[in-house]
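Hi there,

I know you've been waiting on this one. I reran it after we fixed the sequence typo, so this is the corrected version. Both the input and the resulting structure follow.
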Amino acid sequence: MSSTSAELSAADDERPKRLPALSPTVLAYLIGPIAFVAILFLMKFNLVASEPVWLWFVVFCAVPLVSAAADRFYLHRPSHRRLHLRVAASAAAVTLVIYLCGWGPVLVISFAFLALENISALGSRVWAITTGWSLVGIAAGQIAISENWAPSLLPSSRANALALLGAFVLFFVIRMAAVVMDQKEKAEESVRLSEDRFRSLIQNSSDATIVMNEEGLFSYVSPVVTQLLGFEPADLLGVRATEIIHPDDRESVLNRFESTGPDASFLQQFRMQKVDGTFRNVEAVITDQRERPSIGGYVANVRDVTERKEFEALLAHQALHDSLTGLANRQLTLDRAEQMLLRSRRGNEPVALCFIDLDNFKDTNDSLGHEAGDKLLCAVAARFSAMLRAGDTVGRLGGDEFVILTEGIGLADGPLLVAERIRDALHEPFHLEGYDGLPINVTASVGIAIGNRISAQELLRDADVALYQAKAVGKDCCVVFEPEMQSAAVDRLALKSNLYSALANDQFFLVYQPIFDLESMEVRGVEALLRWQHPTRGVIAPDEFIPVLEENGLILGVGRWVLRQACAQAARWAQSGRSTQMSVNVSMRQLASPDLVADVSAALEESALAPSRLTIEVTESVLMRDADATVAHLRRLKEVGVMIAIDDFGSGQSSLTYLRRFPIDELKIDRSFIAAIDGSRESVALLHTLVELGQNLGLSIVAEGIETCAQLDGLRAERCGYGQGFIFARPQAPSAIEPLLSRVGAVAGAGAVARVDLHVGASARSGDEGAPGHPGQSGSAAADNVRGAYADADPAATAADQFQGAHLSGA
């Protein structure tokens, strides 16, 4: 930069010096003394008219004085009249001088000097006035010659001819000067407007315009810099630009200057210091204008981008962090997991990913609202963050799912201790703002994946598989991923995929289990149970696929199909004289669906089955999820005319208050109570209480899962009304049930036991005695008589439809 500056200075010294500029008015006044000397010189040689010297002296003294007075008079208060007076005074002075010397007609061109001075001083608009007064001066001079008031060295005819010719030439000279001046004025006006526009843009622009010379010193600073940095423009003139650039940004800015060629521009972001010492982020477009003499430096248009940078930083933070809790989101969590795995490969340190899911978080959302749920998530996030080391990461993937990444020494004592720390962090109840006096207890299921993986996605996938296993085991527990879990997850995914086509491909079918009157041993009804005939795996138990149907929502469509099939089968039996009660289970999602009543009504209408012949079974746990809403749903079903039964009674937490509120007709005692009859007196007492409770409420009592004769004897002793189980019949196809239904009347009339199942439970004894169907008869005798009564049933049909599986709950 310094060498270039010296070369430019030397070039300036070599340029020729310009004379100071003179205005046309000054030149006009200088003509007077010069003309006076010239006339005196010419008078000596008799080349001009001989007039007294004193006269010429008076003339050349009076002319400038009168002209100056007229000019001042006009400038004091410009007006059209005063303009005429000024021009007329100047024209009179010229007329007096040229005609007094005797050569007036020849010197009429002198009026051109008058015109040029006036046009130059007052603009092209005065050309007409100047021309007019000049012609008046010529006419007056010619009159003075003709009257011998003025001397003339020319004959009268030649003088008049020359005056006329001079006036003609003078007119065009003045007009041409006016045209030239008019063009100049327009050009100057255009330049003035352009400069004014540029000045206005510079001064009112939101961007500051700065000009720096080659030494990096400010030579021009626009007023906007006051808003940008707080400095007045004058305070920065002569200041080196790098002095107000952040020290960390100076090197990069100087490097860009050095790499930029002539007339090139570049965009640079850096920080500039304000007058108070703080810094603002700016963006500058800098152009090298050193080759332009009018600038001779660099021009920078500087814009404040502090707010934009802050907003970009905010967007970047939001793109990588959860908006509710401020924790790392999925993208950032996976990125940090990748970095963790990379460090693990280099240092061979243990790593783990803990996938956390809050248990029953939906209950908080449903009972207290989403605002309380959001506050609870924030509180949980705060506890997780507080328990971690600086190098660990906690992230939220969405909903109530969190991820914790830990590595190194934190895993020295085993991954289960990490999970224990997570559960300890949630041990204390949460007290949310706005919900004082209502402590909220939270537990979590944790899936842990440890060890190196190819990618973070695989680590997260394995932890998710372990989490699924943890939730399947129960609440508030932890499971560490094992390789065999992955194959189980793949099988589950395949099962889930196959379920989408199972209904369309008619792979579902129903089996029916009879329900007996335990006193008369007559068939009281049947329960429809769902099975899936998988094309490659064979018949799949409902416990395996029903939860998947619940998860993906297919249970609504499948449940609708079950209702229609069961009602249609019951209607066909009724038309053939085998009327019986049909029981169908409905799931939680079905019960909450607004279409359930319509589905039930449609199934009854399509099959023409009497509504009273259909029993809708709902498990106790489903009923108690939202008891108030459940009451409303059940009442709408009762309006259709169907019967309502509580399935698996005793396994949930229903209270007597809710039992009285529910519009139910039947209680089905859970199989766990039946299985415990053989165990202790306490179990028998509990069963007695359940049966008595139902009888006091006027409800029918059905015992589920009767498998032994001892259980049957105990239930009959407690006067339990109805029962079902393997001791009577396993779930079977309609063809195996129909012989039972067709012989109900005949066998009942003969006092025999009505049953069709040929495959009694393994604990049923064949050698017991007693008359079938009579009060006081033992369970083993009743079973033997059932076999005797239906010895002619088709064993092949019943055996083909036998299925050794658990009964369907919620389908």
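Quick highlight: The CA atoms of residues 491 and 506 lie 21 Å apart.

Best,
R. S.
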